[in-house]
Amino acid sequence: MSMTQDELKQAVARAAIAHVPNDCIVGVGTGSTANFFIDALAEIKSRIRGAVASSEASAKRLQGHGIEVLSLNEAGTLPVYVDGADEITRHLHMVKGGGGALTREKIVAAASRKFVCVCDASKLVDVLGKFPLPIEVIPMARSYVARELTAMGGQPKLREGFTTDNGNVILDVHGLSILNPVELETTLNNIAGVVTNGLFARRAADVLLLGTPDGVQTLV
Ligand code: 5RP
User: Fold this and answer.
1) How far apart are alpha carbons 116 and 109 in whole angstroms?
2) Sheet of 207-212, strand order
3) Could you tell which of 86, 162, 208 is best to mutate to test the pocket of ligand 1, judged by most ligand atoms within 8 Å of the CB?
4) Is CB count within 10 Å lower at the N or C end of the chain?
5) Distance CA 211, CA 207 (A)
6) What's the pLDDT band for 1 if we cut at 50, 70, 90?
7) Number of CB atoms found within 10 A of residue 179's CB
8) Cα separation of 116 and 60, whole Å?
9) Ligand 1 atom closest to the CA of 118, numbered from 1
């Protein structure tokens, strides 16, 4: 019997538990795969001190399982951050932010020693950019940033009716073929009004747990 996409996500989420040291504060991502990780974490909650969440939604789910949620400021450097991705390459460069949590995700990832990415096999790509690149923007800069992105060859679309946890808007940029993600991440960061872009290349994942019908593959 073939596994569903949810079963693949659940399998990688469970495999990520092996990367969680005893007595630690674990960094927790956002999205459907991260949700499976949170549910797996609940089963071993007695051996962790707590979690730092990358979104209000993940914080609620963690608390619902009785897992203590700490602020990043009180937690300090985290040993491990576990999160999904919208696209990932074999270099472990990612596009993230489909769920709109990219800014807090990038902050918690930056503050973690190890980034474990958990994905089903559909997320692995040769070149990033088929999935529209999410960019979190200060609301007053929306039109200006959209013009800059258009000048760079992208087609930005405002994510309608969506406000981030930080009170900002998201532009989803279509039509980019991202051949140099490290360089593009830096370039986008330099546009005034951009808070965060969804390229996670300067701080890539350290480990990819990829859910395939033949089992969980580990790429490093
Ligand atoms: C949220 C993210 C998620 O990691 C990404 O959207 C993947 O989500 P899912 O596990 O539901 O496919 O970056 O901002």
Assistant:
1) 9
2) 50-53, 25-28, 78-83, 112-120, 207-212, 215-219
3) 86
4) N
5) 13
6) low
7) 10
8) 21
9) 10
